[in-house]
Amino acid sequence: MRRFFILFIRVALLGGLLLSLPQGTAQAATVSPGELINLVNGLRAANGLPALIEDAILDGTAYATAQAMAANGVCAHIGGARERIRAAGFGGGAVVFATENMACAVSATISDIQSWWSDSLHMMPMNEARYTHVGAGAYTASNGTTYYVLHAAYVGDGGSASLPGSTGGSAGQGQNPAEPLVEPVVTSTPQADGTIVHTVQYGQALDTIATWYGVTIAEIKALNHMTSNTIYVGDNLIIKIAPTATITPTRTLTPRQPTRTPSMTPTLTKTVMVSTPTPTRAPGLLDTLPKIDRQWLGFGLLLVSAAGLLLVLYFLFIRPRFKK
Fold first, then answer.
1. Which of 119, 132, 153, 215 is most exposed, with minimal Cβ within 10 Å?
2. Per-residue model confidence as pLDDT tens digits over 263-288
3. By the 8 A CB rule, do 134 and 35 touch?
4. Interval 103-128: pLDDT, tens
5. Which residues on neighbouring strands pair with residue 133, listed in sequence order?
6. What is the secondary structure of 45-69 as a DSSP string?
7. Alpha-carbon span 172 to 164, nearest angstrom
8. Partners of residue 53 on adjacent β-strands
9. Residue 133 in 3-state DSSP?
């Protein structure tokens, strides 16, 4: 009994020790807003450009954009980035120019995002000297998808402007170029034959277009015979081809020829009456016998049979008994 009790104590202690050990759980890799800003400034430094200044207003607009994308369940630009940034107070009422980079993933590293933003449009904040301020935001939806947004902006009124919400510094002199805005994807109306064609606008990417139309990148590339994901402003992308018409055979009624009804032509038949003589049979032996009534004949046969039966019974049963 004592051994059993000691064994029980040892098992309980071992179980408690195992339960107390930290449990390793696989978690999706995510990128923080600070890492996004460091990525931009690291690439700017490599290009010989000054680092962008993190701005609290741009942080707020980037986070609000990521949250709106998650709420709509769409990984795509919602449009009007410059207007939203200016309305939030960036630039103090001056003319504002901005660009928006976004990405969506369940699991991503900073290297992934760098590869997604490696095209010329997404590299504008890293390559253009006129950008001065930056903000970033990330929002993880209930389905595990994290939406990343980066806003880079500058004041383009030709002078210096104090930017409320900036962590430090002020906007330099803007060049005020005629810079196009990132245009949201507006789905095209099907043509008369059902074909859908989308004209690429500034800032639109192939994955964004595919998301808004509810198709895949592979489908768009196949329809347009594309070998890469590179698209240019003004490209007309076929999103959906016209459905193939199904030819239904038309049955043609063949007129039936009228059937001629044969007419009955009366035919006169001449009937010839021929008389055939019937031979007369010669009288036989039965014909010479006198006619006997069948009823009496039957009665007579019955009497003869009864008499014969009595004779048989007599010779078989009655006569032997008298001899004894």
1. 119
2. 565 555 555 555 555 566 666 655 56
3. no
4. 999 999 999 999 989 888 889 999 99
5. 53, 153
6. HHTT-PPPEEBHHHHHHHHHHHHHH
7. 14
8. 133
9. strand
